[in-house]
Amino acid sequence: MKYLLLLAAASSFASAQNGKSLYTANCAACHQATGRGIPGAFPPLAGHFPDLLAAGGRAYTVRVVLFGLTGAIQVNGKAFNGAMPGFSQLSDAELAAILNEVSTRWGNTLPATEMPYSPAEIGAARGDTLTPAQVYSARPKGTK
Questions:
Q1: pLDDT tens string 29-46
Q2: 129 vs 41, 110, 111, CA distance in Å?
C-alpha cells in the first residue's frame, strides 16, 4: 500500500512538472508561449485567469478545458469571437497540470484559499459532457 501511495505521489509530481510542456503542446499555438494570445483571434490568459476564477469559479475553468468554448467574449476590454476546442482526450492529470501552469504564470496567481487543481477534480467534471456552446452560456456575467 505504501508503494502505491508513493507511486501516485510521484506521478502527480511528474504531471505538475510537465504542465509547461503540456501547455506548449496543446495551448500555445493559440494563446502563445507568453500567454498573451493573438489580438482579435485568441484571448490572453496572462493576467486574466484570476478574473475567471473570481467570476465563475474553478468549475467553469475546468469545463472550458474539458469541453471547449465558442462565442463572442470580452477580455480586458477587447473583443474575441472564436472557438476553443475541448481537450477531453487529455488525461485528468494532464489537464490539472495545464490548469496549474496557467493559473500560476504570467502574473496569474491562485488565491491563497485555493488549492492547486487535482486530477480528481477534472475527473469529477467529465460526467457533465457539455458542448462548447453550453460552456459559453455558463460563462460568468461580465466576462462575455
A1: 999 999 999 998 999 999
A2: 26, 26, 28
The three cell numbers of residue 69 are 468554448
Measured distance CA(64)–CA(92) in Å, rounded? 14
Integer Cα distance of 69 and 71 in angstroms: 7
In degrees to the nearest 10, what's the CA dihedral of 132, 91, 60, 18?
-120
Q: Mean pLDDT for each 10-residue chunk of the chain (144 residues)?
A: 42 63 95 93 91 84 94 88 92 96 90 89 92 87 59
Q: For the stretch 82-104, what's the b/e string if a residue is b when 16 or more beta carbons lie within 10 angstroms of its beta carbon?
A: bebebbeebebbbbbbbbbbbbe
